[in-house]
Structures are given as structure tokens and as C-alpha cells.
Amino acid sequence: MPSETLVMIPPLLCDARIFAAQMNELSRDHAVMFAPTTRGERMEEVASQILTWAPSKFALAGMGMGGMVAMEVLRRAADRVTRIALISTSPQADTPEAAAAREPHIIAARSGRMADVLQHEINSTWMAPTSDKVELVRKLTDMGRELGPEVYVKQARALQRRKDQQATLRQITQPTIVICGRHDGQYQLKRHAFLAELIPYAQLEVIEGAGYLPTLESPDAVSDVLRRWMKAPLMLRS
């Protein structure tokens, strides 16, 4: 039986470099597809685009905003997803306050102040104390600058308008893994534990020595976890 294609969806203002180590490692045994989130101002639009690109059946991994898109993909086409990995993410919608707080940054991006947007969106306190924060900030800044303000505005709008996906998670029957860094300052460990508890049979994997960016902060550890998850049997559960 051929191995499954793995579709990987990135966080806000990130390109394939966020998964470079994992794509390099997993592509030895699997077809790996990177799915950008640069089109559409709603999660539904982004998810629909990915579903037009993806094969008829596929494994799915999403990080940050990409995890939120992955949940929408699952909500729309659960029969096509063979297994799912959720990394550094949340199933909850923006609160009205959080949605409103995005507006000044959207305005800044549209008015040519993308540097200010990147400074706000890239928070080194979300990373592990032992991580090379200078290098991580540089990588994230490079990706965000290259993607640019138009992409940022679309992604910020999608985040503002996203649905709460807790009901979607309760219905998952596919092998599921929830991955987070021990020192994640954005979505803390207790929030990931709550996310995992929503999903029947989900496994929570905590990456030591990592924060919000485990794919960059502890790339080998994340690759190992994803490899084990991809090898796990597909079990029908009811």
C-alpha cells in the first residue's frame, strides 16, 4: 500500500521554511506537499483552495494559523483526511476584543508600515529561553517581509473571522497528534492539553526546549514525532 501524502500548512506570515527540516526528513518516505495560506480572507476560502490542490486522501499537519486552517479542512472534508497533526494552535475563535485589536495592524500594513507589523507579530518571548532568538526572529522577519502586506491583511482578516472549531475536534476519529513546545508563550501547555482532551484518542506531545516554534526550535524532535505519527496504523474508531 503506498504511503500517504502529507499536506503541511504554515503559521501566519510563514512560508515553507517553517517546515524545512520536517519536509526534508519526511520526504524520504512520503510525498510531502506544502499548502500556502496566502489566498482568501476567510478560513473557508483558504481551506477550499487547499482541498482543490490536495490528493483525494491525505495526512494533514498545520501549525499556528495553519492548524486553524487544518481544522476547517477537516470540518469540510473529514472523509479525505487520514490523520491530523495540530502544532502550536488553538480551536477557539477570536474574541471580539482580539479581533478588534488586529485592526491597527491591518491599517499599518496597508499604509506601508510593514516593519511595525512584523515587530508586533514576531514575539521572542513566545520562544524557549534556550532558543537562538536572534536567528529565529531573523528567519521570521525574512519570511514575513517577502510575503508582504497584502498577504498579511488577508491572513489577519481570516483570523478575525474564523469559527470556533471545538465541535469539529470532538468528532475526529483519525489518528491525531497535538504538538507543542514546553515554553510556548502564545498557546501555553494547558491550552494544548485542553485541545487534546477535546479529541477522542488524541496524543499530546510536548517538545522540551521549544516554545511557539517547535519546528524551528527543536526540528529533529518534531521530525521524530511526525515520523512516528505517520507510521501509526489507521484504526477505525467509533
Briefly, what is this?
With 238 residues, the chain is α/β, with parallel strands linked by helices. It has eleven helices and six strands.
Question: Could you explain the architecture of this structure?
Answer:
With 238 residues, this protein is of the alpha/beta class. The chain has helices at residues 20-26, 43-53, 65-77, 96-101, 103-110, 114-121, 133-161, 166-170, 189-198, 214-217, 219-231, and strands at 6-9, 32-34, 58-63, 81-87, 176-181, 203-207. Strands 2-1-3-4-5-6 form a 6-stranded parallel β-sheet, with helices on both faces. α3 links the parallel β3 and β4. α1 (20-26) crosses α11 (219-231), α5 (103-110) runs antiparallel to α6 (114-121) and α6 packs across α7 (133-161). The protein is globular, with a radius of gyration of 17 Å.
Descriptive key words:
single chain; alpha/beta; 6-stranded parallel sheet; globular
Beta-strand residue fraction: 5-15%
Give the integer mean of the pLDDT values: 95
Q: What coarse outline follows from CA principal-axis ratios?
A: globular
For the biggest sheet, the summary is: 6 strands, parallel
End-to-end separation: 24 Å
Reading side by side through the largest sheet, how are the strands ordered? 2-1-3-4-5-6
Number of strands: 6
Strand pairing plus helix content: what structural class? Answer: alpha/beta
Low-confidence stretches: none
- Residues in helix, %: 40-55%
Q: What's the order of the H and E elements? A: EHEHEHEHHHHHEHEHH
Provide a count of the helices: 11
> C-alpha Rg, in Å?
17 Å
